[in-house]
């Protein structure tokens, strides 16, 4: 077997592991910030959703996805998954 391809695979996998760690920490940080927002909204009896903000963010995310050649349908699915989880968390805080 060609050792070169094994080394390349290993390098790619190590890079993926590093990126997965970054993604996980980034999501954790993002949810900490949205938790702060949820507390503010709950304390001030504000709605859990902000459609204008969501639309603005989605447009921004899709623009970035296009720039980096990331499938925009996939990017939108991820964005919606995150936003829906945030909304669920905010609704729980209100109760």
Any overview of this molecule?
The chain has one domain: Chorismate Mutase Domain, subunit A (Up-down Bundle), CATH 1.20.59.10. It contains 3 helices and no strands. The protein has helices at 3-43, 51-67, 72-94. It is an all-alpha fold. 3% of the residues are buried.
TL;DR?
The protein is mainly α and 95 residues long. Helix content is 85%, strand content 0%. The chain has helices at residues 3-43, 51-67, 72-94.
**What is the count of DSSP helices, taking H or I runs of 4+ residues?**
3
Q: Could you give me the name of the CATH homologous superfamily? A: Chorismate mutase
Number of β-strand runs: 0
Q: What about the largest sheet?
A: none
- Structural class by helix and strand composition: mainly alpha
CATH architecture: Up-down Bundle
Order of helices and strands: HHH
> What is the highest CATH level, the class?
Mainly Alpha
Alpha-carbon Rg, integer: 18 Å
DSSP helix fraction: over 70%
C-alpha end-to-end distance: 60 Å
Low-confidence stretches: none
Q: Which topology does CATH recognise?
A: Chorismate Mutase Domain, subunit A
Number of domains: 1
Mean pLDDT: 93
Beta-sheet strand percentage?
under 5%
Coarse morphology: elongated
């Amino acid at each position: 077997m060609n050792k070169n391809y094994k080394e390349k695979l290993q390098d790619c996998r190590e890079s993926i592991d590093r990126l997965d760690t970054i993604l996980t920490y980034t999501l954790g940080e993002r949810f900490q910030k949205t938790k702060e927002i949820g507390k503010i909204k709950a304390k001030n009896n504000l709605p859990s959703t902000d459609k204008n903000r969501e639309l603005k963010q989605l447009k921004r995310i899709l623009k970035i996805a296009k720039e980096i050649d990331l499938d925009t349908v996939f990017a939108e699915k991820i964005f919606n998954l995150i936003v829906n989880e945030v909304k669920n968390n905010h609704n729980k805080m209100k109760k």
